[in-house]
């Protein structure tokens, strides 16, 4: 198996903080690799070392076999990082920004214009092409940023929290873009705070916490150690809640949680020891509730949150560090 990125014992220290504390990663070429962790986990610091923007204090990192310290120029030629190399000029239009970057990267006038047109179209920005970037929405800006980072098709693209703060529609657009980029052969290392995002896009995921990898595997492996998700139910009548809890506990064998809302019940679906998917288990539970005469007004099936992942892996919720 070809590795796009390989790190061994990678370390970066800021004063007392071991931001990255002995990270081993093996990222297969041609895949999306997810690095999942809360604020302050060390994601950006790790990415910056891989992109040669910060020197490691210990360990080694290679990109397609090239050492990020000794062969930094080789690495730089192969990687691109959103929001770093590609800084957008707010006063220029989307089209002008891409065109300028294409020219800076050495494209001739004509090919720069063609590349710009193609990217604007692929990223749904053709209509906004002639508008100044300062008038763009968060989602449009993020898309333009990613477009700028692939003007020259990189072997490895680092996407550092590409959808944080985006609305669901923009998030979906970014996900589609990532799928297209990886289909064209680029290896994508994506950092995220959302398990759902890593699950949708990544072939493998490393969960990091306080600079250390605390779990690694396919999304399926991760979810089977964490639980497949939760069923959230809203009842018609509060008086039926104790019955609903009993039925859910019996059918799902799950931990049932209730909070201050007297109509709401949440049950974790365990992913272990069953071949039946979360949706099937949930529909079975709904049928049992109906059979017991319990009226359900609303229902949703959610994937485990980052907090649930961390609870399962560390017995602690994701400890978010206050940004310095
Ligand atoms: N330039 C820096 N100087 C001092 N501390 C830093 C610096 N960059 C990051 N840190 C600290 O390193 C830790 C990891 O930060 P970071 O890599 O930005 O995490 P993430 O991207 O996962 O949110 C945090 O505790 C952060 O405060
Ligand atoms: Mg970060």
TrEMBL record:
<dbReference type="InterPro" id="IPR017871">
    <property type="entry name" value="ABC_transporter-like_CS"/>
</dbReference>
<dbReference type="GO" id="GO:0016887">
    <property type="term" value="F:ATP hydrolysis activity"/>
</dbReference>
<dbReference type="GO" id="GO:0046677">
    <property type="term" value="P:response to antibiotic"/>
</dbReference>
<dbReference type="InterPro" id="IPR003439">
    <property type="entry name" value="ABC_transporter-like_ATP-bd"/>
</dbReference>
<dbReference type="GO" id="GO:0043215">
    <property type="term" value="P:daunorubicin transport"/>
</dbReference>
<feature type="domain" description="ABC transporter">
    <location>
        <begin position="5"/>
        <end position="235"/>
    </location>
</feature>
<keyword id="KW-0472">Membrane</keyword>
<comment type="similarity">
    <text>Belongs to the ABC transporter superfamily. Drug exporter-1 (DrugE1) (TC 3.A.1.105) family.</text>
</comment>
<dbReference type="InterPro" id="IPR050763">
    <property type="entry name" value="ABC_transporter_ATP-binding"/>
</dbReference>
<dbReference type="GO" id="GO:1900753">
    <property type="term" value="P:doxorubicin transport"/>
</dbReference>
<dbReference type="GO" id="GO:0005886">
    <property type="term" value="C:plasma membrane"/>
</dbReference>
<dbReference type="Pfam" id="PF00005">
    <property type="entry name" value="ABC_tran"/>
</dbReference>
<keyword id="KW-0046">Antibiotic resistance</keyword>
<dbReference type="InterPro" id="IPR027417">
    <property type="entry name" value="P-loop_NTPase"/>
</dbReference>
<dbReference type="GO" id="GO:0005524">
    <property type="term" value="F:ATP binding"/>
</dbReference>
<keyword id="KW-0813">Transport</keyword>
<keyword id="KW-0067">ATP-binding</keyword>
<dbReference type="InterPro" id="IPR003593">
    <property type="entry name" value="AAA+_ATPase"/>
</dbReference>
<protein>
    <submittedName>
        <fullName>ABC-2 type transport system ATP-binding protein</fullName>
    </submittedName>
</protein>
<keyword id="KW-1278">Translocase</keyword>
<keyword id="KW-1003">Cell membrane</keyword>
<dbReference type="InterPro" id="IPR005894">
    <property type="entry name" value="DrrA"/>
</dbReference>
<keyword id="KW-0547">Nucleotide-binding</keyword>
